[in-house]
């Protein structure tokens, strides 16, 4: 909940105040999928969910995959890292239940530069939420929704997030 401090404008000799509550353990967890589809009118999209004062484990990630499958009617190839929330029985059950529509591919270990969602987190944290000190997790959650809703259907922005990663763009997006 403590803000990432960045440079800002202020009167000369007067540091702008940044009020915040101390010693709190509130947080907002986020899970997201940056997707592309050659069949859609807008081939890029973003689906995300937040969880104030909680965390995404493999049960919640499996449920997220289920909601993603309902939103996107075509086959899904999910490319993700080897985090603990991406493993286990709930994930295996989701794949078995939705086979052949759902396929999982793991990125190599220690390769966050290949994950197109990582630049999104960096943009959100270092740009949009810099110097932001929310009163509580619900205020932070609301602000995160505002920022992500503003870009979730912007193909140029989403393409830039994909290009910021080292994962090659699918051929259909290069045209």
Summary tags:
alpha+beta; Nucleotidyltransferase, domain 5; two-stranded parallel ribbon
What is the end-to-end distance?
41 Å
Helix/strand-derived category reads alpha+beta
Global shape: globular
User: What fraction strand?
Assistant: 15-25%
CATH superfamily: Ribonuclease H-like superfamily/Ribonuclease H
The CATH architecture would be: 2-Layer Sandwich
CATH topology: Nucleotidyltransferase, domain 5
In the sheet with the most strands, the strands line up as 1-2
Molecular structure report:
There is one protein chain. By secondary structure, the chain is an alpha+beta fold. It has a single domain (28-169), classed as Ribonuclease H-like superfamily/Ribonuclease H (Nucleotidyltransferase, domain 5, 2-Layer Sandwich), CATH 3.30.420. Helices cover 36% and strands 16% of the residues. It has 6 helices and 4 strands; from the N terminus they run ββαβαβαααα. The strands form 2 sheets. The protein has a two-stranded antiparallel sheet with strand order 1-2. A two-stranded parallel sheet has the order 3-4. Strand 1 and strand 2 (44-52) form a beta hairpin. Helix 1 runs parallel beside helix 2. It starts with 27 loop residues before the first strand and ends with a helix.
